[in-house]
Every structure is written in structure tokens, then in C-alpha cells.
């Protein structure tokens, strides 16, 4: 990954101006990579990151860029508000008298002063670039730690569970930082080293490659400290044998109800949900049993601990272990994704210009350009004939034409483009219209927009979301065929 570079040890750069310049560049690189990596795969991000850095090598270059240029560079990465926030933040950092282009090294300041930087990104910048013992906890790390601690909880929405895991990550990185062979000291007296960054990235890497949703426990370098592994091994080596244990829960008997973990859910009720969040058949149900607490895990007999660290050698045994580990963290049934259908109306003027309008500055696809679109309020209107009528009425009103005005013609419905956002399943029905003899000097205001409309003869070059761009491809193909 091109953004992974050796840590800059401040004590190895005696010239303060040179150090500042190098830190400024490094912090900027780490920041951009971390924002791009949110919701996007590493393999995709590498190319975007390289192009971004070639175009805007420093934060000052980015701050001076045009908003549309930034959106265009982000095209295809999705969640476009990230690009807008990065751009806004770069201007703030460059204009600020204290920062003058250099991101702060402290987690608290990063979160307080930089738009779009939450505690994960702040931790990553602070640890990787500035060498501070800050935790960085992404989804992969939440999974690794919930298995290491044997915490069967909802790591997405249960605040107590999330706080506990962040607390564990903080304690770990602070301990690891103490372990560093060479420490530098920051302006505020804090010990700095490469350890926090390497540790945090190592933990994330482990979650991305080994402790995945379907873990490879036999190849895991930290199985000896893993509670889920230990519980699985106990199941597998139980005198009843692995075959009976595959759908069971750990058999450790809780000596006292007060010793039960108040954060962990019972296995019967929750852990039997499979990866799709479904409950398997009744026969697979395990007896209700709470996990033992962290306290009882840590104070378990040495005999148990020895069992945990001795690697099993047969495949059946390992299968029981990984099946048990897969139960962590708690699987939560996903909310149904909202479905919506919309009419995307490409209105072509006689001279080949198309009407486009800009989406609002906040919310979904913020600031991007699109063809005028109207949501179908009634799903029963989702038949081609109704869609044509509704789209025609809508375009008449957009252009301020009276019903039946012959200057407007519905050319046809070109197809339907399905598009999936994290919370929304959208189907875009692309309608092509032609209009002639209308005022070409001004563009009509598209209902519901406040950011402006205009006629464009270069739709290809406009900053549009990938879904809208697919709609444009249908229009382009239709025009090519017509010529
Ligand atoms: S032993 Fe298995 S469950 Fe535990 S951390 Fe390693 S891969 Fe994850």
C-alpha cells in the first residue's frame, strides 16, 4: 500500500523546518488514505490515492482546488460527502494560524478541529504519523478484539460493548508503546515511537486477512491469548468429542450468576444466527448458557490456560474451534433496505445541450450534478405507460411549459438502472425528452433544488455520481444509434 511508509522519527530530523514539512506531507497522506478506505476496498483505493497525490501532492494544493475538480477525482469511490469534507477541512487547516497546513497530532484536537475526522481516523493519524499511543479501531479490529476477549455483543450499536473494546484497544496500544526500543519525546513531553502505528495497522491487517468473518484460527499468531479459540478448543476436546459439540456452547459451568458477564448475550438466543442473520432449525438450538465473565476467564485454572495454548492437530477439532469463533461478534439482523423508484429525465435541447442540476450541499450525493429526477411516490405507477405520463408532466413543469406544449417530445424510456446505496435500493427509469425553441440563455429552476441548474454540452465531463453516469451511458448510446 503506497501510503504505508516508515515512521518519521522527530529526533532523526534536526532541522525543524524540514521536519515540519515532512510531517505535514505524511499526515496529509495518511489522512487521505484513511478517508478513502472508509467503505472502500484497499485494492480500489490504491489507484485513487496515487492519482490524488499526483494531482494534489500537498494539503495546500488541495485547499486551492476547485470543488468540482475534487468531486471529479472522487468519482467512483462513492459517499461523495467524504470528498467535500476533506476539501473543506484542507482549507481550514491551511488557513488556521496555529496549524498552517500541519494536522494536529493529538486525537482530541483532530476530532475537534478537522471536519469528517472521527475517533478512528484521528487515532490512525495520531499513531501512524505522529507516533502517539492512540487506538485505531475499525470493523476488523472490533471483530478481533471481541474474539480475543470472548465478548459476544453487538459491536455496531451497543455503546457499552463498543466502549469496552475501545478501552481494551487503548490499554493494548499504551502497553505496546512502552515496549518500544527507541523513544522520541514530543513537544508536550509525550513519548513517541513507531510502535503504536505498526501495532494498530498490524491488528487491522490480522482482522482483514486471518481473523476474518470466517477465521483461519490454525494460522493465527495470537491464538494463545484468544478467548474464543480457548472456548472452541474446550468444546472440541470435551470428553463427548467434537461431533457432539459442533452446535453447542462452551460447557464451562458458571459458578455464580453474579459472575456472569452483563455485556455478553446468551448463546442460545443470539449466537445461533448464521452469517445472513437467520436462525437455523430448532434441532440446532443449543442450551441456554451465558458465557463466563472476563474475570472468570482470566482467573480460570492454569490447566485450562495450558489447554488453550496447545495447538490441536486434527481438522475436526479445528473446525469446531473456527465454528465457535465465527459466532463472535454478535450477528444482528440487518434492517431491511428502503426501496425507491425514480424517473431520471434527460432533457435534450435542439443544440445538443442537456439540462442538469446540482444536488444540495448536504446529504446523499451532495454537490454532484444530475438530470432532473422525480421519485415515484406510488409503486403501482411503476409501469412504463404510467412512468411516461408522470415523467412528461414533471418535465413540463420543470421547463415551465403548458400541458400539451408541442415543443416537448418524449423520445422514449431507455432502460432502468438499479443502484444500491447502504440504506437504499434505488431503481432509476431513464426517460429521454427533446425540446426545441425554448429560451437557451437561462436554465429553469428544477423543483426542490437550491444549488442551481444549467444546460450542459459536456455531460461526460460533469461531476456526476456513478449511478447517474450509468443513466447518461444509456442516453449516449441512444443518441449514437439515432445518428
Ligand atoms: S484464534 Fe481465531 S478467533 Fe482468535 S484471533 Fe486468531 S483467528 Fe481470530
Tell me what you see in this structure:
This protein has 483 residues and is α+β, with helices and mostly antiparallel strands. It has helices spanning 16-37, 42-55, 59-63, 67-74, 81-95, 107-113, 119-129, 139-149, 159-178, 195-209, 227-236, 242-245, 267-271, 294-298, 302-309, 315-325, 384-399, 466-482, and strands at residues 184-185, 191-192, 338-349, 354-358, 369-370, 373-375, 408-420, 424-435, 453-456. The site of iron/sulfur cluster has 14 residues, from helix 8 and helix 11.
Structure keywords:
483 residues, alpha+beta, Endonuclease III, domain 1, Nucleoside Triphosphate Pyrophosphohydrolase, 3 domains, four-stranded mixed β-sheet, three-stranded antiparallel β-sheet, 18 helices, 42% helix, binds iron/sulfur cluster, glycosidase, DNA_glycosylase, iron-sulfur, hydrolase, metal-binding
Q: What is the name of the CATH class of the largest domain?
A: Mainly Alpha
Main sheet summary: 4 strands, mixed
Total of domains: 3
Arrangement of strands in the largest sheet: 6-3-8-7
Weakly predicted, low-confidence segments: 242-248, 269-277, 279-309
Order of helical and strand elements = HHHHHHHHHEEHHHHHHHEEEEHEEEH
Through-space gap between termini: 46 Å
Computed over alpha carbons, the radius of gyration is 28 Å
Amino acid at each position: 500500500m503506497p501510503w504505508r511508509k516508515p515512521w518519521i522519527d522527530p529526533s532523526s530530523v534536526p532541522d525543524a523546518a524540514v521536519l515540519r514539512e515532512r510531517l505535514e506531507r505524511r499526515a496529509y497522506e495518511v489522512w487521505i488514505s484513511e478517508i478513502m478506505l472508509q467503505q472502500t476496498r484497499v485494492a480500489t483505493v490504491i489507484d485513487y490515492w496515487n492519482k490524488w497525490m499526483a494531482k494534489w501532492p500537498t494539503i495546500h494544493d488541495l485547499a486551492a482546488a476547485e470543488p468540482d475538480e475534487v468531486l471529479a477525482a472522487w468519482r467512483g469511490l462513492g459517499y461523495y460527502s467524504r470528498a467535500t469534507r476533506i476539501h473543506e477541512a484542507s482549507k481550514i487547516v491551511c488557513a488556521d494560524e496555529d496549524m498552517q497546513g500541519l494536522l494536529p497530532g493529538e486525537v482530541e484536537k483532530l476530532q475537534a478541529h478537522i471536519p469528517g475526522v472521527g475517533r478512528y481516523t484521528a487515532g490512525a493519524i495520531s499513531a501512524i504519523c505522529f507516533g502517539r499511543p492512540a487506538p485505531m479501531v475499525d470493523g476488523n479490529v472490533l471483530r478481533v478484539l471481541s474474539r480475543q476477549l470472548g465478548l459476544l455483543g453487538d459491536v455496531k450499536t451497543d455503546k457499552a460493548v463498543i466502549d469496552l473494546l475501545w478501552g481494551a484497544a487503548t490499554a493494548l496500544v499504551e502497553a505496546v508503546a512502552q515496549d518500544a526500543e527507541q523513544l522520541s519525546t514530543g513537544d508536550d513531553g509525550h513519548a513517541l515511537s513507531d510502535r503504536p502505528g505498526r501495532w494498530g495497522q498490524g491488528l487491522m491487517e490480522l482482522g482483514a486477512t486471518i481473523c476474518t468473518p470466517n477465521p483461519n484460527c490454525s494460522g493465527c499468531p495470537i491464538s494463545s491469548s484468544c478467548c474464543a479459540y480457548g472456548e472452541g478448543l474446550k468444546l472440541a476436546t470435551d470428553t463427548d468429542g467434537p461431533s457432539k459439540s459442533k452446535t453447542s456452547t462452551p460447557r464451562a459451568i458458571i459458578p455464580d450468576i453474579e459472575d456472569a458477564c452483563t455485556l455478553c448475550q446468551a448463546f442460545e438466543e443470539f449466537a445461533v444466527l448464521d452469517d445472513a442473520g437467520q436462525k437455523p432449525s430448532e434441532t440446532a438450538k443449543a442450551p441456554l448458557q451465558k458465557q463466563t465473565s472476563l474475570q472468570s476467564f482470566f482467573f480460570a485454572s492454569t490447566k485450562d490456560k495450558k489447554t488453550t495454548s496447545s495447538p490441536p492437530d486434527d481438522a475436526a477439532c479445528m473446525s469446531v474451534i473456527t465454528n465457535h469463533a465465527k459466532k463472535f461478534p454478535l450477528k444482528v439482523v440487518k434492517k431491511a433496505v428502503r426501496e425507491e423508484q425514480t424517473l431520471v429525465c434527460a432533457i435534450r435541447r435542439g443544440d445538443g445541450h442537456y439540462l442538469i442540476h446540482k444536488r444540495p450541499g448536504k446529504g446523499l450525493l451532495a454537490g454532484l450534478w444530475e438530470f432532473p429526477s422525480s421519485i415515484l411516490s406510488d409503486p403501482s405507477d411503476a409501469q412504463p405507460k404510467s412512468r411516461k405520463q408522470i415523467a412528461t408532466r414533471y418535465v413540463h413543469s420543470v421547463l415551465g411549459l403548458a400541458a400539451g406544449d408541442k415543443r416537448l417530445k418524449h423520445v422514449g424510456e431507455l432502460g432502468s438502472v438499479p443502484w444500491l446505496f447502504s440504506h437504499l435500493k434505488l431503481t432509476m427509469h431513464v426517460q429521454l425528452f427533446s425540446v426545441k425553441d425554448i429560451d437557451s440563455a437561462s436554465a429553469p429552476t428544477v423543483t426542490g433544488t437550491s444549488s442551481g441548474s444549467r444546460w450542459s454540452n459536456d455531460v461526460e465531463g460533469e461531476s456526476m455520481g456513478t449511478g447517474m453516469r450509468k443513466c447518461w451511458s444509456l442516453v449516449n448510446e441512444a443518441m449514437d444509434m439515432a445518428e
